[in-house]
């Protein structure tokens, strides 16, 4: 069980398991044998994250709840979706599981249980009927509709980093773009893939306000957008804070971001008038002195109040063609100064220099999360970047770029035809937009 939201359907299954254990004890005439146990295989956060969203409560919290149920004797972790490891370790007389897994994505898992029990010839599978009228899926949907607390959202990113790799993060610059990022999902080989959180991009936050990406949009204005995003979503957000500004100002930004429920801030090691990194050396850009940047990281870490807020240091050495050695020297210094993660940026079409950096960094540091932004090197898949050692993959500007193209085409079409009939097919229908947001009708 995941046992995140315990309901009568779970209790029914546990009662049946208890009945089987009691029956074994009753039939047992050898008093030297131990009593039969009901053992609950509790899915770890990692196991759950491999097929659906993280549970509300972490493993320890869920364990604290279920181990106090009198129907259960013992709780053990189930580290994978597959039951095979635990079955081999326990050789159970019975495996009890709700019959809902006879169809849908869990059918393979079920078959594996049947095959394993047969191979080991140790026990049988009991499948109580799924209790109608109550389901975790519905309870989850209801709970999500209520929303998420500031603290729970803030700590989600740290929990996700522990539980899965890669995290796919999508740029959002408005509540509607965040709703798209929140709700889009695809199914690959029976597994649901969704975005794990949002990127508040300085480029798209500036561009959507008609301003250049030079730290010209105030934090308060960007926090307004984030508040609107948070009002209608439940996923974590990573904030692009450009250079972070002066050290003395950065510490206040950290507090403001935390208060809002932002999970992480990324600051880049540039100084002076910041220009967008993808412009590289075509414009004048100055990299910050290592010690100065370390001091800013340390001051930010000291300023934060929550334990889960993260400060991620972004290295611009490859963007500014300073080479791998400079990038690595900086990475280790920033981690030493307290950075919770490293973002390595590149504007090459090939991912080679980023992969080379990750390999060299991982040779010395296997833990610190690595963030990559494959805007230029867009042929490499998130999964491949994760295999190379990256933890977070940010798609940093795509929703705004997509919307601009769509909006411009429609604006031009209306003028060209002097009416809107021809561009109707490029627009969402009025009926669809009216029913898009609950409460409109
Ligand atoms: C942003 O999205 O604003 C970024 C990433 O900082 S990049 O535009 O590639 O520099
Ligand atoms: Mg930026």
Write a compact overview of the structure shown:
This protein is 44% helix and 14% strand. It has 441 residues and is α/β, with parallel strands linked by helices. The chain has 3 domains: 8-136, Rossmann fold, CATH 3.40.50.620; 148-396, TIM Barrel; 402-435, no CATH class.
Description of the molecule:
Belongs to the isocitrate lyase/PEP mutase superfamily. PEP mutase family. Its EC number is 5.4.2.9. GO terms for molecular function: phosphoenolpyruvate mutase activity. It holds the Pfam family CTP_transf_like. The protein is built from 17 helices and 16 strands. The model has no long low-confidence stretch (mean pLDDT about 95). The strands form 5 sheets. The chain has an 8-stranded parallel barrel, surrounded by 8 helices. Strands 1-2 form a two-stranded parallel ribbon. It folds into 3 domains: about 10-135, HUPs (Rossmann fold, 3-Layer(aba) Sandwich); about 150-395, Phosphoenolpyruvate-binding domains (TIM Barrel), CATH 3.20.20.60; about 400-435, no CATH class. Helix 10 (about 220-230) runs parallel beside helix 11 (about 245-260) and helix 12 packs parallel to helix 13 (about 325-335). With about 450 residues, it is an alpha/beta fold. Magnesium ion binds next to helix 9.
